[in-house]
Amino acid sequence: MNVVVCVKQIPDPSTPGQLDPATKTLVRGGKLVIDDSDMYGVEMALQLVDKAGGGEVTLVSMAPNSEVSGLRTGLAMGAAKAILVSDDALVGTDALGTAKVLAAAIKRAEPDLILAATESTDGYTGTTPVQIAELLGLPAITFAKHIEVADGTVKVDRQTEAGYDEVSSPLPVLVTVTAGVVEPRYPSFKGIMAAKGKPVDEVKIADLGIEAGQVGWGGARQEITDIAKAEERKAGEIHVDEGDGAEKVVAYLEKLKVI
Amino acid sequence: MPIATTWVLAEAAGGKPLGVTLELLSKARELGGTVEAVTWGGDAATVAPELGKFGATRVLDAGDIGDSLPGVAVAAALAARIGAGEGADVILIPQTYDGRDIAGRLSAKLDRPVLTNVVDLAGGDQPESCHAVFGGSEIVKAKFTEDGPRIFVVRPKSFAATESGGGAPEVVTIEVPDSGATNAAKVVQRHVEERSGPKLDEAPVVVAGGRGLGEAEKYSLIEDLAKLLKAAPGASRAIVDAGWVPYSYQVGQTGKTVKPTVYIACGISGATQHMVGMKGAKNIIAINKDQDAPIFSLADLGIVGDVHKVLPKLIEALQARG
Ligand SMILES: Cc1cc2nc3c(=O)[nH]c(=O)nc-3n(C[C@H](O)[C@H](O)[C@H](O)COP(=O)(O)OP(=O)(O)OC[C@H]3O[C@@H](n4cnc5c(N)ncnc54)[C@H](O)[C@@H]3O)c2cc1C
Ligand SMILES: Nc1ncnc2c1ncn2[C@@H]1O[C@H](COP(=O)(O)O)[C@@H](O)[C@H]1O
Question: What is the pTM of this model?
Answer without folding.
Answer: 0.93
